[in-house]
Design brief:
This protein is an alpha/beta fold. The protein is built from six helices and six strands, in the order E-H-E-H-E-H-H-H-E-H-E-E. It has a six-stranded mixed sheet. It starts with a strand and ends in a 21-residue tail after the last strand. This is Broad specificity phosphatase PhoE.
Length: 201
Amino acid sequence: MRLVVVAHAETTGTRAAVFGDVGDLVDEVAAPALRTPGRWWSAPEPACAATASALADDPTAVAVLDGLRGPDLGAWAGRPLDEVIATDPAGLATWLTDPGAAPHGGESLTALLARVGDVLDGTTWPDAGATLSVTPLAARALAVHALAGPPASVLHLDVAPGAALRLARTGGTWRLSALVPPAARAARGTRKGPRVSGVPD
């Protein structure tokens, strides 16, 4: 059984490094290099739904799975990274080093990993495979779950907006079989705000 996971295309929020991004897409959605199976599911975020609608053969058939949503980032939601660095440096440092912490008052990375893992394992996917449109951070969590990695690994992967990964399951075991960067990344705008290792794109 194969799944392709597509991180939603670049948005105004990802360009500005906004936590809990709900920005609008800024470019035409480029098809990922991986072939995407015909059946599509989307996380509820607008950028995920818009990406799926742009790429699916039948946009009206895209189903929403709430369990695939990105994490609840609490007080940081909607705030750019540089603002969080300035106002809550200790909280950010804790979040970057302790996946069980939720200094923003929302959902920890450990909780995100468990939630998307439950969806991955508990959903009856079509035999022919499926494609999931999710946030970049949820895509990281899905990859870590497939690798049976520790929760801290979520922030040691880079899955940029528009990137895709392929997951395969044999028996009850998932594996990560491909990770492909987004198409035409060089043609996109420059991300604003400081670069902090592990922070979502």
